[in-house]
Design goal:
The complex is a heterotrimer of chains A (293), B (666) and C (164). With 293 residues, chain A is an alpha/beta fold. Chain A is built from 13 helices and eight strands. In chain A, helix 1 crosses helix 12, helix 3 packs across helix 4 and helix 4 crosses helix 5. Chain A starts with a strand and ends in a 7-residue tail after the last helix. Chain B is of the alpha/beta class and 666 residues long. The chains are: A alpha/beta (293), B alpha/beta (666), C alpha/beta (164).
Chain lengths: 293, 666, 164
């Protein structure tokens, strides 16, 4: 299976481990990533709050590149990238005058659409059976809370691959790894997102509520599929003063890392040593049981 | 043919801009015109006598009056023709006033146009056929579908006027949702206390045949002449032997396998049950899905308990056919459940409120049962999960209603009022409790309604917060209700012990199926549609079928009762005459050329096109052709224009007549 | 009354439904709203009754323009007749040019019983437009060339009647 790949800026920087683990896991599952040559910013964050045209033109450019490079489907692991690519495609398809302006600024025609997938959809494509078949480590010692955040499932009318209020797709995938998932309240609650730098206090407050609820429902790790969520939940834990509340730190793993663990991929290759909150103790517990070959 | 043309001056109304004498003179030369005259006022008695005398004198077999709009005086002149012994349908009108003299200034223009208009009418009348009004007999019996308060009211009104009524209710007892309510707004009088006597009245009324636990299976016929097949579902209890003692219900060992429908799932009921103690008729039903006998054949507890031998496990559904002349549809509503819906539902559920997983997040009818003295808690407000008395309740209005993103565009109308009532009842029962209401707008139009809401706010100190709730989640045994206070402009979180959702009213799930059986219109939500929203609000476009209550649109008890009485009055108007007479403008099929494609059937809005088998003398089927039921046909002529072989014609507006009119312009 | 753009008076056949447009035209009359005098109304119960052939017949009979008008969508007296009409006209309009009739000579409108003013605007608009296009001579000429001479037509009609 070949799939177009749009990494986005985060996966080459702050969430390098998402990229590392993604490549490892997909290689193990016989999926080849064709990275879009000359890809650029997806138009999220700064672009889409300052200039609407830019926030549509940038993703349009990337998708046009993908199209020209012969890709029918593009997977964007970052939730923000995914959201932007899908939204831009929708806007171009429904607003001819905007399409004209985008074509003008890009100095090229936009022809046809490319199917944009997120990481969950890609794993759904691969299938839980394929994951289970390649599993070498049963993660049933782990209980995790799946955190979807805002961008992966909203706006529901546009993305619609899962319920926007009570999503379940990540849970279904994780079942294949053997890990248990909890039913909790804040799956789609706001983590504070890009306020991380300017208003760290807000992010710490919001992210703490999310982690507290995951912990209260018995999770010993939080699984995410978004670099922004990860940095807020992982990096900002230091400021949450967990110890003062008598709480243990709670590791935050990418979905790809969790699946990588089940597939028996080395921790270092998955970038598990790159997190602020050390998942080591948790992984030590989870690693006790190997799948009989 | 001998046609008479009569040109009216209408005083000066036509005469000012049309040279009427010249028109009459010119029309005299139209082939077929035997007499052409003008007169000051054709509609006056002398004018009409002029026509009558001319018909007699010249033995006219067609009349054209050039005067005003047919909407004004067509009936007048038809009657004049009839008085002279001419078939009234051998008459046409040329509209020389509204369509000519009043809209043109130039007398030459007006005169020329008038001649054209008369010529068109003459050409048409030449091809008119003598017709007789269609007369259909009226069966003076009514069917009422639905035994809620609307159906009860309609049935009592019709029966009270002396006509027979068949009342069909699909549940084991009549009473509907009103029987579940604790108190009613704005008077807070007990719902059961005012309803039960009416239920008993229905049961004892000599003119009402009550068929509970029954459903309408098939409807045939048309206004005045319906034939309705009713499925009488097997109760497994013989109504003729049962005394309603309830011993069998007491002895039924299957106590906790089925939730009580009447208690809205807040309590169990046995496999052998009556929905509620005041049920009418007070005859139990066996729920075969949970009864041990129907599973293993082992249990006979009810048989042993029954001293009358009324239990009949072998009972089958029975079908009865009733002839009625009018049908009142009063199937009521359901509350929209916020549980996750299947993907094909047009309504999206409320994931943000937990899709119904939280036990203490209940709907309005469930709260009614909690507040009701006859309810599962004996009228004490206790939350379903742990039976604790909630210290803080949040009521959320417009759950579904007015929420396009969830698939509802409409206002459910009753929720503002019942939520105020709920909050009030709670405060009356739990004095130290706190009640919050999240609302979008307060819609309290109605006698004493606004005052009622003010009472809830001012006297019972219910806290109203204007805003929507974005999420409900459980935390440490509390339900955290997070919403927006749009007046204060801030986010609020309330740690409630219980949440009551005023979920949208929706029609009964089978309403579309019933509408198709009845041949009546329904909207995209399944609400039945009236002919005219202002002037004919209780009549369906299909003659003889009337609407009552919430099956038409969300409405409260007083409105439902008024509508039911209105529907009954409409049925009684129908019963006022022995035969119905209507214009013979209906479609007719030429059976010899009809190829049986039934395109006409597809375009007919009234289900008036039926299939008729043509057999030879030996009884072999030769072909199947279309047949237009005169009782149902409303005469739009869409079938006529659709028919590929021109085998169906609209009498009074046939192709030949219309071609003649077109051709008259050449 | 508006000044006509030319003195030529076109023949306009208007097929109107009884419940909305005919009544709307009545209202225009009751309101004394002056109109161009060229339209001849043919009243049918519903636009659903109007057979596309009527339009062709009208042109054959010498009409320079045809107007069809009925109840607004969702307001049909017969519930759905106007929807059927609308579908029919959407298709038929595309076929008109094919059969040799300039489709711009056929006009559609929805005029309700309360839209007397609109009726005037519609009628005058159609008449203006047809006037701008001139007489529909091409079709009428072709039609007369291919039509049976009146004498032959009469004879044929008689024969048909005898056999009937």
């Amino acid at each position: 299976m070949n799939i177009g790949y749009f990494p986005g800026c985060s996966l080459t920087g702050t969430s390098k481990e998402y990229d590392m683990s993604l490549r490892e896991v997909l290689a193990a599952l016989d999926v080849r990533l064709d990275e879009i040559a000359d890809w650029s910013c997806c138009g999220a964050s700064s672009a889409h709050v300052t200039n609407h045209l830019l926030s549509v033109a940038l993703p349009a450019r990337n998708l046009q590149l993908a199209k020209e490079q012969g890709m029918a489907e593009v997977m964007a692991p970052c939730a923000a990238c995914y959201n932007r690519l899908v939204s831009a495609q929708h806007e171009i398809a429904t607003r001819p005058e905007l399409k004209g302006r985008v074509e003008y600024v890009l100095e090229q025609k936009i022809d046809g659409a490319v199917t944009v997938l997120n990481i969950i959809e890609l794993f759904q494509r691969i299938g839980t059976d394929a994951i289970a078949a390649k599993k070498t480590l049963d993660l049933d010692g782990m209980t995790v809370a799946c955190y979807y955040g805002c961008l992966l499932v909203r706006p529901a009318a546009l993305l619609g691959f899962d319920d926007a209020e009570q999503p379940q797709s990540m849970e279904a995938l994780i079942a294949a790894t053997g890990a248990k998932t909890v039913d909790w309240n804040f799956k789609t609650e706001c983590c504070g997102a890009a306020h991380s730098i300017a208003r760290t206090d807000i992010v710490v407050d919001l992210s703490k509520k999310i982690l507290d609820d995951a912990r209260a429902h018995g999770a010993d790790a939080v699984i995410v599929a978004c670099p922004m969520c990860h940095s807020n939940l992982d990096m900002r834990q230091r400021k949450m003063k967990n110890a003062a509340d008598g709480h243990a730190d709670i590791p935050v793993l990418y979905l790809t890392e969790l699946i990588g663990l089940a597939l028996g991929i080395e921790h270092k290759k998955l970038g598990l040593d790159l997190h602020f909150i050390n998942p080591g103790p948790l992984l030590a517990r989870a690693a006790r049981k190997e799948v009989a070959a | 043919m001998k046609i008479g043309v009569f040109i009216c001056y209408c005083g000066e109304n036509i005469g000012r801009t049309v040279d009427c004498a010249a028109v009459a003179q010119a029309c005299a030369s139209i082939p077929g015109v035997a007499v052409s005259v003008d007169y000051k006022y054709m509609c006056s008695d002398p004018g009409q006598n002029l026509i009558i005398n001319a018909i007699r004198e010249h033995r006219l077999d067609g009349v054209v009056v050039g005067s005003c709009s047919p909407h004004m005086h067509e009936k007048t002149f038809r009657k004049a023709c009839s008085n002279a012994g001419l078939n009234p349908f051998m008459f046409e009108m040329a509209n020389l006033r509204e369509h000519c003299s009043w809209i043109h200034d130039d007398i030459a223009v007006g005169t020329a146009k008038s001649i054209d208009l008369v010529r068109i009418a003459v050409e048409k009348v030449k091809r008119n056929e003598p017709l007789t009004p269609i007369r259909v007999p009226v069966t003076k019996r009514a069917l009422v579908i639905g035994g809620g308060i609307s159906g009860i009211q309609a049935a009592l009104d019709i029966a009270g006027a002396g006509f027979q009524v068949v009342l069909v209710e699909k549940e084991p007892s009549i009473g509907g949702h009103m029987s579940q309510l604790s108190e009613t707004f704005p008077t807070l009088d007990c719902s059961q206390c005012i309803l039960t006597p009416r239920m008993v009245e229905v049961y004892q009324h000599p003119n009402i045949t009550l068929m509970s636990y029954s459903e309408v299976e098939k409807v045939e016929g048309f206004i005045g002449n319906f034939s309705v097949t009713i499925r009488r579902k097997a109760r497994s209890v013989r109504a003729d032997l049962c005394t309603g003692c309830g011993d069998c219900v007491q002895k039924c060992p299957i106590k906790k396998k089925a939730y009580s429908e009447f208690e809205e799932g807040l309590a169990f009921r046995p496999a052998m049950y009556v929905p509620f103690p005041q049920a009418v008729p007070n005859i139990p039903v066996i729920d075969r899905a949970v009864c041990t006998y129907y599973k293993t054949g082992k249990c006979q507890a009810c048989v042993k308990a029954c001293g009358r031998g009324a239990i009949d496990f072998e009972q089958q559904d029975e079908f009865v056919t009733e002839a009625v002349g009018a049908i009142v549809v009063a199937t009521g509503y359901k509350l929209y459940t916020i549980d996750k819906k299947p993907d094909d539902s047009q309504y999206k559920g409320y994931g943000e409120y937990g899709y119904g997983v939280y036990k203490d997040v209940i709907d309005g009818l469930q709260f009614e049962r909690l507040a009701s003295a006859s309810g599962p808690t004996g009228g004490e407000i206790r939350r379903p999960s742990d039976k604790a008395v909630p210290k803080k309740i949040v009521f959320i209005q417009c759950v579904g209603s007015r929420d396009e993103s969830k698939g509802f565009s409409y206002c459910s109308k009753i929720c503002c009022m019942y939520t105020a009532k709920h909050a009030m009842l709670y405060k009356h029962k739990v004095h130290e409790g706190e009640a919050y209401v999240f609302y979008m707008d307060i819609r309290s139009g109605g006698k004493g309604y606004e005052e009622f809401v003010r009472r809830a706010i001012e006297e019972d100190h219910v806290k109203y917060i204007r805003g929507r709730v974005s999420r409900i989640y459980e935390k440490d045994g509390k339900y955290i209700v997070r919403g927006e206070d749009t007046i204060a402009g801030m986010q609020v979180e309330i740690d409630a012990d219980m949440v009551v959702l005023a979920t949208a009213m929706v029609p009964q799930p089978e309403s579309a199926v019933l509408a198709q059986k009845l041949g009546i219109a329904y909207d995209n939500h399944g609400y039945f549609v009236e002919v005219h929203p202002k002037l004919r609000p209780v009549e369906c476009s299909t003659g003889g079928i009337f609407l009552a209550g919430a099956c038409h649109s969300p409405r409260d008890i007083p409105e439902s009762v008024s509508m039911a009485s209105a529907a009954a009055a409409k049925a009684l108007v129908l019963f006022g005459s022995d035969v119905l007479e209507r214009e013979p403008v209906v479609a007719k099929v030429n059976e010899s050329t009809c190829a049986g494609c039934f395109y006409c059937q597809k375009v007919c809005a009234y289900n008036a096109v039926e299939r008729r088998e043509i057999r030879d003398r030996a009884g072999n089927l030769r072909k199947v052709v279309a047949y237009v039921n005169e009782g149902l046909c409303q005469g739009c002529g869409t079938c006529n224009a659709t028919c590929p072989s021109k085998s169906v014609e609209l009498i009074g507006f046939t192709d030949e007549q219309l071609y003649a009119e077109i051709h008259a312009l050449a | 009354m508006k000044m006509p753009t030319s003195t030529w008076n076109p023949k306009i056949v208007a097929f109107v439904c009884n419940w909305c447009t005919y009544t709307g035209a009545d209202l225009a009359g009751t309101s004394r709203l002056k109109q161009e005098p060229n339209a001849r109304l043919i009243r049918v119960p519903c636009t659903g009754r109007i057979d596309p052939v009527f339009v062709i017949k009208a042109f054959e009979s010498g009409a320079d323009g045809v107007l069809i008008s009925g109840c607004h969508p969702a307001d049909c007296h017969y519930n759905t007749g106007n929807y059927h009409a609308r579908r029919r006209w959407t298709l038929f309009h595309n076929l008109l040019d094919f059969v040799g009739i300039d489709s711009s000579r056929l006009h559609f409108s929805w005029v309700s019983a309360s839209e007397g003013k609109k009726w005037v605007t519609v009628v005058d608009g159609v008449i203006d437009e047809i006037r701008a296009r001139g007489p529909f001579e091409r079709y009428q000429k072709a039609n007369s060339e291919f039509a049976l001479p009146p004498a032959l037509f009469e004879a044929a009609a008689k024969e048909v009647q005898q056999h009937a």
